[in-house]
Amino acid sequence: MKIASFNINGIKARLPRLKEWLSETRPSVACLQEIKTQDEGFPASEFEEIGYHAAWHGQKSFNGVAILTDGEAPQDVSKGLPGDQEDEQARFIECTYRGVRVVNLYLPNGNPHPGPKFDYKLAWMERLRARMQELLASEQPAVVVGDFNVIPHDRDVWSVCAMANDALMQPESRDAYFRLLGDGWTDAIDTLNPRGGVWTFWDYQAGAWQRDHGFRIDHLLLSPETADRLAAAGVDKEYRGREKASDHAPVWVELRS
């Protein structure tokens, strides 16, 4: 089973590129972030034409997440991260597909920091940890994927100095991420690339893509039950270089049956 994550940065603007990627790589599950559309505007029929079912949690102009599943419809869909009934941002959706619980998230950026946006990021990560602990306790095979907006290690960024003051690299952000791993989750990309140097995001500004000035913020976390099935993981880097591309590249993990 191949499970992928792709911050599409506007599903309507990138729809041709998205369908192109789906057709060429055919993941079993594709988790999308920043779809940037209200629920009623989600182009589900476009994916049905190529054999994908969809579940989505939209929001006008900002955020928004969706899960596409190949052949079979997603089961037991849940929208919104538990723990704060006043949080209306569309950043979290989960479902079950072929016995695996798939969690798709778009974690808050947190900039500028310090400030309320950074506080919201850290509080969101605490709520996420609580939900992920519930998944571990269930012992159901699970994957938690998406744009975490955290650069875990210095080896995950082209220039530590360039990002030193960014919310993505603050000690508090990293500590919150490492607490997730400490609970028993496996970072698939990092496990297979321990020396780092693997980027998933390149800014549109300052020729970042052309100069390969990127960093890794899109992650694939595996529960112990799925970590035992880890066969491969990678980044579809070439799609970042195509016309009208997202500023993220898709990331993926393959699980043995």
UniProtKB/TrEMBL annotation:
The keyword Chloroplast does not apply. The record marks N149 as: Transition state stabilizer. Its cofactor is Mg(2+); Mn(2+). Its EC number is 3.1.11.2. Gene3D superfamilies: Endonuclease/exonuclease/phosphatase. The record marks H248 as: Interaction with DNA substrate. The keyword Calcium does not apply. One of its GO terms (molecular function) is metal ion binding. Keywords: Hydrolase, Magnesium, Manganese, Metal-binding. The record marks D218 as: Important for catalytic activity. Residues 4-248 form the Endonuclease/exonuclease/phosphatase domain. It holds the Pfam family Exo_endo_phos. PANTHER family: EXODEOXYRIBONUCLEASE III. Belongs to the DNA repair enzymes AP/ExoA family. This is Exodeoxyribonuclease III.
